[in-house]
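Retro notes (design track)

What went well: tokenization of the new backbones is finally stable.
What didn't: we kept losing track of which sequence belonged to which structure.
Fix going forward: every design gets posted as structure first, then sequence, in one message. First example under the new rule, 409 residues:
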């Protein structure tokens, strides 16, 4: 049966720290990956190698003791395969046995290393300290011919501390990798959220304008069924034109959404459309006038950066849409001013409380979206009734000075 690691299943991502660091429940079921099998085989071979290298040291021991050494040494090496399921229990048992038996030392070293890697310091530290304590009876009961008791204790202490430090380093590295992975996932999720919000604002700004135009023309046909044929034809043409433009805008936004999601063929099925800039404001005002709005535009000359102009265009577009919804028929004044190196301001003003014809319902999200758009561009936006009795939307956006080729050098 194929092994499935927990971190490969999205529904178990919450368990990733336990899988990565081994801080799971003692005795839990172990499902090894290919890498886990390779590591476990290597640990088994290390324990077996250490055990075999210590066999010559017990050749002079009595036969019963040699038999006990060989039996427990073989069992300890076999128990290494249980190190993932019962790491603490294996470490405690092998540490106790190694206080007298020599052939258990290899399995004891592997067990201490496993606890250092797979358990926090509050568990691995006391177990390592317990292993150091058990060195005292070992060097006293099983003295080595070429080492003094103190020399044997120092050698055993060096081995235990080296193995423990090695395990701690590996555990710290795993914690660092997991932390970096979590940060990367959080950054990716935040980027996706910001992209979704940007697309939602774009969709609202684009479609709200087109749909409000459709509603105005349709309302004119509804309230004036006896209008001349030329006016009905003109209104029907405007409805058809705005419906077509709305579909195009919607198709463009969906294309951006597909591209942001990385869908295959997104660039082929939905071509990019040019984004509006400040130079497109007169066209927007003409469309509003054709829909029956009384709009006056004060637009200065000069080149404005594309991104800045697009933000101002969207702010004015949404403000005009709100004026059509809530003050239909009222005169609207659009004023854009500013200079490079300072700010570019946009003001949309219309009389407050004017109601003519059918009122278009709104989602009450347009002004919130305008405020977010201005803040993301590094500016600010204010809206509300003015002392003169008008409703005013004002936005101030930073206007950076364009660099020349000489400045770059």
């Amino acid at each position: 049966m194929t092994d499935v690691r927990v971190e490969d299943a999205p529904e178990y991502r919450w368990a990733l720290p336990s899988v990565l660091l081994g801080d799971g429940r003692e005795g839990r079921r172990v499902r090894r990956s290919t890498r886990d099998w390779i590591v476990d085989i290597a640990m088994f071979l290390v324990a077996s190698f250490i055990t075999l290298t210590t066999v010559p040291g017990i050749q002079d021991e009595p036969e019963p003791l040699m038999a006990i050494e060989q039996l427990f040494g073989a069992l300890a090496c076999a128990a290494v395969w249980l190190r993932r399921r019962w790491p603490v229990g294996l470490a405690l048992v092998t540490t106790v046995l190694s206080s007298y038996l020599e052939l258990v030392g290899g399995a004891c070293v592997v067990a201490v290393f496993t606890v250092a890697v797979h358990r926090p310091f509050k568990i691995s530290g006391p177990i390592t300290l317990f292993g150091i304590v058990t060195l005292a009876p070992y060097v006293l009961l099983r003295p080595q011919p070429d080492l003094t008791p103190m020399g044997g204790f120092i050698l055993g202490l060096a081995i235990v501390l080296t193995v423990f430090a090695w395990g701690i380093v590996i555990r710290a590295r795993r914690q660092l990798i997991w932390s970096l992975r979590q940060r990367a996932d959080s950054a990716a999720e935040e980027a996706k959220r910001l992209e979704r919000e940007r697309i939602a604002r774009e969709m609202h700004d684009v479609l709200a304008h087109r749909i409000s135009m459709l509603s105005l023309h349709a309302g004119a046909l509804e309230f004036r069924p006896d209008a001349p044929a030329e006016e009905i034809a003109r209104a029907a043409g405007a409805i058809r034109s705005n419906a077509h433009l709305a579909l195009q805008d919607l198709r463009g936004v969906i294309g951006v959404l597909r591209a942001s999601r990385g869908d295959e063929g997104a660039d082929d099925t939905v071509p990019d459309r040019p984004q509006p800039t400040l130079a497109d404001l007169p066209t927007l005002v003409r469309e509003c006038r054709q829909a029956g709005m009384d709009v006056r535009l004060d637009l200065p000359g000069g080149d404005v950066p594309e991104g800045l102009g697009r933000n101002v265009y969207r702010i004015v577009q949404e403000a005009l849409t709100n004026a059509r919804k809530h003050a239909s028929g009222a005169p609207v004044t659009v004023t854009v001013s500013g200079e490079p190196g300072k700010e570019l301001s946009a003001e949309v003003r219309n009389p407050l409380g004017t109601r003519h014809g059918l009122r278009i319902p709104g989602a009450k999200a347009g002004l919130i979206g305008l405020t977010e758009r201005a803040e993301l561009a590094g500016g600010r936006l204010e809206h509300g009734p003015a002392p003169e009795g008008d409703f005013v939307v004002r936005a101030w956006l930073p206007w950076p000075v364009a660099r020349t080729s000489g400045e770059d050098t």
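Added context from the reviewer: The radius of gyration is 38 Å.
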